Amino acid sequence: MVRDGEQAGTIEPGSVAARRDGDVLMLALSGDWSTEALADASAALDRIDPEGARSVVVDLQGVKSLDTNGALFLLHKRQAFEAGGGQVEIEVADPHYRTLFEAAARSPDVRTEPPRRPNALIGLLARTGRHAVGFAATGRDLLSFLGAVTVALLGAVLRPWRIRWKALIAQMEHTGLHAVPIVGLLSFLIGIVLAYQSSDQLARFGAQIYTVNIVAVGILREMGVLITAIIVAGRSGSAFTAQIGTMKVNQEIDALDTLGMSPVDVLVVPRVLGLILVMPLLTFYANIMGILGGAVMSMMALDIGFAQFLTQLQGAVDASALFVGLVKAPLFAGIIGVVGCFEGMQVSQSAESVGQRTTRSVVESIFLVIVVDAMLSILFSVIGV
Q1: Contact 328, 225 (CB under 8 A)
Q2: What CA–CA distance (Å, rounded) separates 105 from 375?
Q3: Pick from 346, 355, 364, 345: which is nearest to 21 by CA?
């Protein structure tokens, strides 16, 4: 059975366009998938390598004609893939095709029992291997994107008249000025928690006054910049991914390419550069609010006056503690900005992909920030800073 109105046309050999979205393989079928053209269609499908894909989505929107043999062929292919532990989703919007698949699914040739589950150990090893390969491929693509962004940033620094200043200032406003309330509030609360927990332990030794030292060193060297980076990753990094991803779904990035404009210069440089400029300011502000929170808690729980707190603070830390925290800020900003924009560029043509990439952007940014922070802490310890 062929859809009405398609029989009289010339046969167009079936073809398959494959695209990967992580471990999902997207197949867009087109042409004829009826009996007369099934040999060519089968050859086109066999040329697709599903290695590494955990699930396959088959889109039939471009199919010109389909009959029962074509539907049976696709169902058999689905069975073969699902027997290996994968999943296949056949997207059928045409009601004629849906009827064909429902009729073909009742055929005795089509197995209806659940697919056989592979051996647990083999499945675990296969999943581990797929994740390792996917992780390596993502790291390679991220490094390539980092190189392109670095070249674009150097070009912007050497030729500042080419910087899109309006876009840069707008990004600084969104990522910096609008983040001031949440950064200040959370840093203030972190200072309170840090002071309370420290005083509770130091009180056992009668050394409550050193709560000031713990709060100051902890906030200036680590907590201030780390809390700021986590907030910025969740707030601005995710926004970068969602904005660029939505533009990609709407094919606005393709339009930039068509006009001969580099998406990295137009979209990525203002975001990354703006974040690099405002992150040290946010970190300094977070340091002040964190220490202020510690001072308030010290006055309430330890009866340490504000003047006494400041006197103890002057002896507890020096400029190097502030420097250690602030020097991390632009580095963390670069990580968050590059990862956010990179994940936005990897969005496929669907709203679901935008959500998935936004989640990955936040997780990867926070993970990389903490890893780099640990490495810097070891480095500063080795060089005695």
Answers
A1: yes
A2: 57
A3: 346
Q: Collapsing DSSP states into helix, strand and coil, what is residue 56?
A: strand
Does 196 score more than 60 pLDDT? yes
Angle at 357 between CA 170 and CA 336, to 5 degrees: 50
Indicate the helix (H) or strand (E) that contains 370: helix 351-383
CA dihedral for 367, 368, 372, 373, sign (positive or negative): negative
Would you mind telling me the total number of residues written for the chain in this entry? 385
Q: What is the pLDDT of residues 159-188, one digit of tens each?
A: 888 888 999 999 999 999 999 999 999 999
Contact 130, 54 (CB under 8 A): yes
Q: What is the β-pairing status of strands 87-91 and 55-66?
A: parallel
Q: Give DSSP secondary structure letters for 123-187.
A: HHHHHHHHHHHHHHHHHHHHHHHHHHHHHHHHHHHH-GGGS-HHHHHHHHHHHTGGGHHHHHHHH
**Residues 58, 357, 52, 148, CA torsion sign:** positive
